[in-house]
Amino acid sequence: WETTLDTEARTLLQVRVNHGDEADEVFSTLMGDVVEPRREFIQKNALNVRTLDA
Fold this sequence. Notes:
By secondary structure, the chain is mainly alpha-helical. Helices cover 43% and strands 0% of the residues. The chain has two helices and no strands.
């Protein structure tokens, strides 16, 4: 039980998506099979990251 399955140790958070179409487009870009759009997105937005591994 030393995993996220341990009900005493895990934290569940509810996530709300306000702009579903925009979120879907970003998700598809980052998780899709085509590398170039992902690379472009990362290069364009890398300096705007505020909470990496927070």
